[in-house]
Amino acid sequence: MKYRITHRTEYHYPRAISRSYNETHLAPRTTPDQQVLAHSLTIAPRPDYTSERTDYYGNRVTHFTIQRPHDQLAVTATTDVALEAPADPVAHGQGLPWEQAVATTGSGTAATALAVREFLLDSPLVETRPDLTDYARASFAAGQRLPEAVHHLMGRIHRDFAYDPMATTISTPLERVFRERRGVCQDFAHLAIACLRGLGIAARYVSGYVETAPADGTARLIGADASHAWFAAHDPSLGWIDFDPTNNRMPGTQHITTAWGRDYADVSPLKGVIFGGSRGQRSHVAVDVQRLPSEDEP
């Protein structure tokens, strides 16, 4: 499956700001199941300085600076990717019993084991809590394979929590999300991560996109898609396995991975610092995920 993803972010300031310093995580990753065919980043006004790097988690990051007055900013990332369906460990009954996975994750001393163990720790937006750990336990029967148990937890979050874009913001505490049982994709990912870390299972946050199909009989809307988020759990015998609690499914050929980290704070699509005053600024984000014809299609 091939896709073209166009992600455009616009900021409009009530008066010109003097300069801005920005960081983006907008370039999708290359993984065993995902190949980046092309990627471009267009910034207006044109930056005075731009640099690229690979961050601690292997994500592609672009930094740019605009050092002259500007009253608007537009950043457009365009990427073509090809996806293959990942293996489904739940369907094939794969994975360690979750208790064994916990013991193995907590005992290794090799560099790879230590890198995984970092995802057991609390992070800026995800704090383990006894009530969240207790909520998770209902999905983890004795001896149950880890992928199956996490899949069950994913289904419960999808059932128990309502998707409500008006209920939370990026700064809404996880405690409130759990209490009010409402939120958006990033909240559900953070919730699952906190549940798993509380049990001793390494879990990370994944940002990206998902193809959304229009309602029957209606035209597909350009820019109607949005950034998406899900989580991955680590089974020492299989590696990282992705789960999408918002849609109650394991990501496959409709999910495009951009970046991963401890939580949203590590992989924000666009963030920065501005100087000169911006109270009353307006922002708009439009994402378009377009399926491209395969080589064997007309």
CATH topology of the largest domain: C8orf32 fold
The main sheet orders its strands as 3-6-1-14
Task: Estimate the global geometry from the Cα principal axes.
Answer: globular
Summarize the biggest pleated sheet.
Answer: 4 strands, antiparallel
CATH class of the largest domain: Alpha Beta
Q: Considering DSSP H and I runs of 4 or more, what fraction of the residues is helical?
A: 10-25%
Structural class: alpha+beta
Report the end-to-end length measured between terminal Cα atoms.
Answer: 14 Å
Q: Could you tell me the radius of gyration in angstroms?
A: 20 Å
Round the mean pLDDT to the nearest integer and report it: 93
Strand content: 35-45%
Provide structural commentary.
The protein has 298 residues and is an alpha+beta fold. The protein folds into 2 domains: 2-83 and 268-292, Immunoglobulin-like (Sandwich); 98-266, C8orf32 fold (Roll). The protein is built from 6 helices and 14 strands. It has helices at 98-105, 111-117, 130-137, 146-160, 174-180, 185-199; strands spanning 2-17, 19-27, 34-44, 49-54, 60-66, 70-83, 162-163, 182-183, 203-210, 227-235, 239-243, 255-261, 270-275, 282-292. Strands 3-6-1-14 form a 4-stranded antiparallel sheet, with no helix packed on it. The protein has a 4-stranded antiparallel sheet with strand order 4-5-2-13, with no helix packed on it. The chain has a 4-stranded antiparallel sheet with strand order 11-10-9-12. Strand 4 and strand 5 (60-66) form a beta hairpin. Helix 4 (146-160) crosses helix 6 (185-199). The longest helix is centred in the middle third of the chain and has 15 residues, at 146-160. This is Transglutaminase-like enzyme, putative cysteine protease. It comes from Aquisalimonas asiatica. GO terms for molecular function: peptidase activity.
